[in-house]
Amino acid sequence: MFSDMVKNKVLIVDDSSMNRSILSDILGDEYEILEASDGLEAIDILSKEGDNISLMLLDIVMPRMDGFSVLSKMNENHWIENIPVIIISSENASLYVERAYDLGALDYIQRPFDTLVVRRRSQNTIMLNGRKKSVGNSNENKLSRNIQNLNTVIDLLTNLIERKKVDISGHTENVCAITDSILNNLGGISFKYKLTEEDIATITIASALRDIGIFGVDEKFLMSDTDEAIAEIRKHTLIGAEMLTKLNDETNPLIQRAIEITRSHHERWDGKGYPEGLKGDRIPISAQVVALADTYDSLTNKKINSQAITHEEAINKIMNGECGAFNPVLMIVLKSIADTLPAKLK
Amino acid sequence: MTVEQFYDYICGDYAGTKGRLMTDERILRFVNKFPADGSYQLLLDSLDSANVEEAFRAAHTIKGVAQNLGFTALYKSSEAVTEILRSGSLDVAAKMPELTKYYNLTIDGIAKLNA
């Protein structure tokens, strides 16, 4: 189609012309670049171009009008709903990051710029936003309603699972967020697992169902730590997969992914996991990612772990193999997105 | 002088920069734009006129550019000045000589690189 040949427009907003030209050099092959040297110029371009801008890279500290004011203005004018923003700044203080996220920025890239990171995060953000736009499209309202309904049902199930496990709510959402983030950055590091946007969205939703088999485990074992209880609790993997198989809907990608994840999210890369002791990439990639996301949130989440450790410590422990055995490629991805995670988690 | 020797000369980080920007050609393109960036002069002017906000932004820009280009020594010295100015203080006399030293060294290095 003709429209496929038109390059997406990326607006780079930074007061330093050096920084603008580095970014424009990194992204120029793939996108049409527009530049603004402060917030006022950015607003001017936004009011002319509107939705034609596929992505905005925004610096925070600028003369005349800073990045936060640009975000506020974009909220006022409802531009933020259609134009995705990635913050670029050396201000890595968590307060800055948090404020930018609160104002609707989708991602955050720290200086110094890394060619691959800038390219990949730009691409991901544009892709994700494209998906959001197509769901929001008016002639797809019916589909959108169905997706909302599905999300409601999954929220309800999540709530039930968390009650059963006496978990504090929020863990499942965090695991979803980490899973989504790992999968979206996996393609930039390895070409091995050819996952489409659709696959990524499906795996992320299906991750919420990983412990659904807990409903098939006798209540008396849940609070116990005898050998017998541990063996029974471990069966939640197979029970969950069986529950999903019984739906007789195995051609549905969501169910396929949910079966992979429920069955194999306690497998280990070294083959020492359960229920089947699968090794390496014999474990479905969906289950590998969810297992890593689960471990990471369990280590750092103060609500579910009274001895929670910091994000840096968690990354170190995982990389050192102290908390299980994971696919080395996934650990590299996790490390590369580590700085963006704290702001995404509850 | 090679690009690597240039980074040694100005106390920068060649390996890291090459890792991020990928090619010498790209590094060179940006290094050669550095002398035309007016932020250092803007910093001096704003300090003269006691305009702390403008001085902060100028120092902050030098810091960002230096960080992106792997000019480690200039990055660290401009960071020190940036943090003082961020707090609203103009009392940078103790930290400016270091920044000036590495700024001049960098400009000098770029001239040698192109000699």
Uncertain segments of chain A: none
Separation, N- and C-terminal Cα atoms of chain B: 8 Å
**What structural class do the secondary elements of chain A suggest?**
alpha/beta
Total strand segments of chain B: 0
The major β-sheet of chain A equals:
5 strands, parallel
Helix content of chain A: 40-55%
Shape estimate of chain A: elongated
Q: In what order do the strands lie side by side in the largest sheet of chain A?
A: 2-1-3-4-5
Based on secondary structure, the structural category of chain B is: mainly alpha
- Mean pLDDT score of chain A: 85
Strand content of chain B: under 5%
Number of strands of chain A: 5
What is the radius of gyration of chain A? 22 Å
Q: Helical proportion of chain B?
A: over 70%
Order of helices and strands of chain A: EHEHEHEHEHHHHHHHHHHHH
Largest sheet of chain B: none
Task: Provide keyphrases for this structure.
heterodimer; A: 346 residues; alpha/beta; 5-stranded parallel sheet; 5 strands; 7% strand; elongated; B: 115 residues; mainly alpha; 7 helices; 73% helix; 0% strand
Describe the structure.
The complex is a heterodimer of chains A (346) and B (115). With 346 residues, chain A is α/β, with parallel strands linked by helices. Chain A is 54% helix and 7% strand. In chain A, strands 2-1-3-4-5 form a 5-stranded parallel sheet, with helices on both faces. By secondary structure, chain B is an all-alpha fold. Chain B contains 7 helices and no strands. Chain B has helices spanning 3-9, 14-21, 24-31, 39-48, 52-69, 72-86, 96-113. In chain B, helix 6 (72-86) runs antiparallel to helix 7. The model of chain B has no long low-confidence stretch (mean pLDDT 94).
